[in-house]
Amino acid sequence: MACHRLKLPYSVGLVVAGIVITLLPLGIPTPLTPDLIFFVFLPPLVFEAAIQIPWKPFRRELPLLLALVTFGVVLATVVVAVGMHLIVGWSWLGAAFFGILIAATDPVAVIAAFKTMHVERRLHLLVESESLLNDGVAAVGFAILVIVASGGNAGPSNIALHLVTNIAGAILAGGVVAFGLILIAGRTTDRLVEITLTMLIAYGSFLLAEHFHCSGVLATLTAGLIVGNYGFLGSISENGRQSVLSHWEFAAFLVNSLIFILIGGRETQMPILDVIETAAIAAGLSLAGRAVAVYPVMMSFAKTKLSVSWKYKHVLFWGGLRGALALALALALPANIAERETIITVAFAVVAFSIFVQGLSMPWLIDWLHLRTEPEKADLSAAKAINRIENEEAEAEAKGG
Description:
Blueprint: H1 2-6, H2 10-23, H3 34-51, H4 55-88, H5 92-102, H6 108-117, H7 121-149, H8 156-185, H9 191-211, H10 216-229, H11 238-267, H12 276-299, H13 310-318, H14 324-331, H15 340-368, H16 375-400
Helix pairs in contact: 2-11, 3-9, 3-10, 3-11, 3-14, 4-5, 4-7, 4-12, 5-7, 5-14, 5-15, 6-15, 7-10, 8-9, 8-10, 9-10, 9-11, 12-13, 12-15, 14-15
């Protein structure tokens, strides 16, 4: 409520609250572990975002999104890893781990700003979808580096096989769980049962994929897209749809609140001042990596129907905040990484920088770029964009015929 009155992102206020809670002599523990983030917090966050994504616009933007989360993530990782190795002196493996984990974005503060300031739907879709896919790819990349660090067979063929099986297995796990439980949901009109089944889909898809060493993030993303675009078409009752959406909106808000409070609490326990110079270099490199991931990749689509304005590019660049997944991956670093403790501390420092500097300045950036609009205008703009693209596709099909 205070953040709303002060027009601040609530994530910033919650991090401050976590810091205050830890500093007060209350004895309240603020644990933040990889398992807590991965298996408790991530499934509802990913699922809630995924069920809100309409399939048709998402499919249309998919070539651009895939370029951003593949070439973009690789470029960002390389920039950060090379910089940390050459400037700071970290080992190549430690620098690579840091590069891939800090490439994972978390636009919670940005999306919250979007909801209050009303930006065009395409920008909202690009930011949220890119972040979800980005997290999945970063998690897969981290898993490949774990294989390398453990001394396993890390040849090109083995890495390619692991990559394919990881992604395919995650999509399969998400599809099996989602479609299976949606069929059951179609046999009831009890909204509480329907909400419970969607909870089982969110956590079940994540846990099933992780059990077979596949990406739980991609599995839950797949399941969320299926529920949001197929499940709501008939399997989930008319009365249950709004209840399901309201439940997940609250669940995501609650989980985000807990995450940012715990991040704030953990920040006070990290010796950030001891690595402040390294953290400053890492923050600068993370921004440079994000710039390389966004601008060149999106410029390659400049002459296509998926071209993106410079205003959108600036928001995607500055809105690439780091959050829970980056910290979970940092805390899950193998013990044999020489710089493990330093990497964890630096990761917390970079996350704090992104929340306080990028998160706080995002509303100002949106206003400066004149991206704020009324809800009706945002909807109209989105409709016009969709109609334009559909007309271009129809014309192309007619010429092909």
